[in-house]
Amino acid sequence: MIEAAVTSTSLDSLEDILRDDLAHCDAMTSTVVPILRHLLLSDGNSVFTDEILARVRGMVGDIAVQLLDEMQGAQSGRDSIAHDQSDIAGLSDRLIANSAFLRHVHALALEGLLAGSLQARLSLDPVLSPLMQALIASSDSDTAALAMRMLASQARFCQSQRRMKLPLGELPGDLLHGALEAMLAHAGEDQDAQAKALAAESAIRIRYDEGLTRLGMAAQLVTGMGGGAIAALSVTHAGVAIFISALAIGSGLDRDETVLATNEAQLARLALSLRAAGMKPEGVAEQFLALHPDIELPEGFEMIGADRAAAILAISGSCPGD
Questions:
Q1: What is the mean pLDDT of residues 232-261?
Q2: Which residues, in sequence order, are CB contacts of 38 under 8 Å at separation 6+?
Q3: Distance CA 208, CA 187 (A)
Q4: Measured distance CA(38)–CA(213) in Å, rounded
Q5: CA distance 251 to 276
Q6: Who's near 174: CB < 8 A, 6+ residues apart?
Q7: Angle at Cα 38 formed by Cα 111 and Cα 256, nearest 5°?
Q8: End-to-end Cα separation, the chain, in angstroms
Q9: CA-CA distance, 178 to 174, in Å (whole number)?
């Protein structure tokens, strides 16, 4: 594995080691969604009731309740309507049948826990990072305004994570579409329920603006930095949210996959992603010190250039699972 000492400085040998590590990463990734779905559908055996599972279950249930509220015509900001538990459970089951949806919610839980971990260990503010302070103080009024909106959105995200909730309007567009399809399917053949579901779908789509979501704004901030976006690849400078978005954009990985790459079981993918995004080897080492202080990069890692790292990642078969 990546933490093992590498005695040879042969580039071919190092690439073989990294490819082998990526194969292990892919194997682990392919099991995440099926196992998570199984645990969510189980009766809550105490062996499996860890914080991530609780957060995922809470967010899925919260989305289901919001969709049911919309079907009943509840206005935004009002207290949730009381729903039959079988309705909540049934719609939740339809939501977690969508692998992409489940991966996303799992990634949000991991991101929230990572932000909390770095706050406890490094005193890194999960909302107002040094980079966010600089962006808010930007002389460009559009950048400053966007940064302020992102700041507020990130604060809401942290609060929602503590409450194990997820606002429906924060879903990426494709996942919101999937959630609405689940709502329509849940309505079944009952004409009254179908009418309510269709009305709710229309209202939700009219209100939705992906550019105003937390992830949408993070992506806009990173792309707006141009060549300066390399600064966003420092987790202690950018904060977890901007760091993950910058790494996803720079490496070409999916953002949810990028969150998973910060996990200790995905070290090869993290190292190669940082290198592919343009970070120098010493910068990659600094990120490992922040994220995984007990792990050292393999000897000779500096021989892997950005293009080669990107090529190795491209060859790797990321298997999301079903």
A1: 97
A2: none
A3: 21
A4: 30
A5: 5
A6: 100
A7: 25
A8: 26
A9: 6
